[in-house]
Amino acid sequence: MRYLLPFFVFLGLASPETTPGLSAQGTAPVVDLASYVPTTADTSLLWRVSSPTAADTARVSYLFGTIHLIPSDDYFLESAVVRAINDSDEVYFEIDPRDMQDPAKMMGLMGQIQMRGDTSLKDLLSPARYDSVATYFSATGMPMFFLEKMKPMFLSAMVGQDLSGGNPLAGDNSKMKSYELELSELAQAADKPIGGLETMDFQLALFDSIPYSVQAEMLYRAVVTDMAGESGETDSEFGEMVSMYRRRAVAEMSQMITDQSAGFGNFEELLVVRRNENWVPVIMDRLALTPSLYAVGAGHLGGERGLIALLRAEGLTVEPVYP
After folding, report:
1. How far is residue 155's CA from residue 10's CA, in Å, rounded to a whole number?
2. Higher pLDDT pick, 203 / 13
3. What span, in angstroms and rounded, lies between the C-alpha atoms of 157 and 65?
4. d(Cα 17, Cα 25) in Å, to the nearest integer?
5. Which of 47, 109, 139, 246 has the fewest Cβ atoms surrounding its Cβ within 10 A?
6. pLDDT tens digits along 137-168
7. Which of 196, 198, 203 is nearest to 96 (CA)?
8. Is the pLDDT of residue 11 over 50?
9. Residue 164 three-state SS
10. 10 Å Cβ neighbour count for 35?
11. How confident is the model at residue 55 (pLDDT cuts 50, 70, 90)?
12. Distance between CA 88 and CA 37 in Å, rounded?
């Protein structure tokens, strides 16, 4: 699930709002969404959102699927995305990227990434599994005594990432790039207002809604998978994700989320589906007011309960924009 992650937080969730076209619980669509799902042939990260009604045909917004961190050598940005920013009056992200660069806000959140009470990672994993995780992080130069009490989902965000060149969200010379940072700089250069669909507090709330034991199991599985990729036994999840992103394969990325969530209960529901349902009315309301670009993790776009299908089910026209 790491391609849904901002630099240091996992994706969070507040109580789902009731969205038109959804059940009161916000979990079961009352219409068949299958016909609205982008197919494997719809290889685009940028999507144009408009209203088919005569009065609103001039109002256009955009969805753009990001990958929060990507190796610098794999980074690309199509001219159509730049044009979409220029054609929009405002740019929204999952959270405002400027918050990630604010030292005061970052320091204020440090306590929230620690597990409650005296719980440590040793309490959540068998000795053998703990040793595997400790060995993995020690090899990256991050000793376990520093990470021992961090919530496992936070540690999962670090698996597979090469941050040895610096912090891309701080503007350091890094081996990784952040689409959020690059897009926010473009928006600011064009004098476009920037906002967030959620806050860092909102996202961090998810850490306490999923049992630490489940988080630890996911961390261990992520470490094992990444180590297998490094050894050449299989493709790493991060490498596979980057490949999908470069192919603009939004349908495949959505399926990857479903596959990775298998065995972890309502994890996909919490991380992706309900948040999509929360964002739909925001996008619809803003569409009636001003053209906007929404840059969110690409894994939120595809699937029967992805943003594209949900917006289409509400009667909006959502179509791919190709270079």
Report:
1. 10
2. 203
3. 18
4. 8
5. 139
6. 988 888 888 899 999 988 887 887 665 555 54
7. 196
8. no
9. coil
10. 10
11. low
12. 25
Q: 262 CB contacts (<8 Å, ≥6 apart)?
A: none
Torsion sign, CA atoms 35, 61, 9, 27: negative
- Distance (Å, whole) CA 287 – CA 276: 16
Q: Give the span between the Cα atoms of 212 and 148, in whole angstroms.
A: 13
Return the pLDDT at 27: 43
Parse the chain into domains and list their residue ranges.
2-113+166-208+250-316
Measured between its terminal Cα atoms, the distance across the chain in Å is 28
Provide the CA 166 distance to its chain's centre, in angstroms.
21
Query: What one-character-per-residue DSSP string does 250-287 give?
Result: HHHHHHHHHHHHTTSTTHHIIIIIHHHHHHHHHHHHHH
DSSP annotation string for 88-104: -SEEEESS-GGGGG-HH
**Long-range contacts formed by 181-190: CB under 8 A, 24+ apart:** 181/97, 181/101, 182/75, 182/77, 183/64, 183/66, 183/81, 183/85, 183/91, 183/93, 183/97, 183/295, 184/91, 184/93, 184/97, 184/98, 186/82, 186/85, 187/85, 187/91, 190/85, 190/86
Alpha helix locations (H) across the chain? 79-87, 103-109, 121-124, 127-139, 144-147, 152-156, 179-189, 200-204, 212-231, 237-246, 250-261, 267-268, 274-287, 307-313
Predicted model pTM: 0.79
Q: Of 266, 279, 268, whose CA–CA distance to 310 is shortest?
A: 279
Query: Which residues 6+ apart lie within 8 Å of 233 measured at CB?
Result: none
Q: How far apart are CA 70 and CA 33, in angstroms?
A: 31
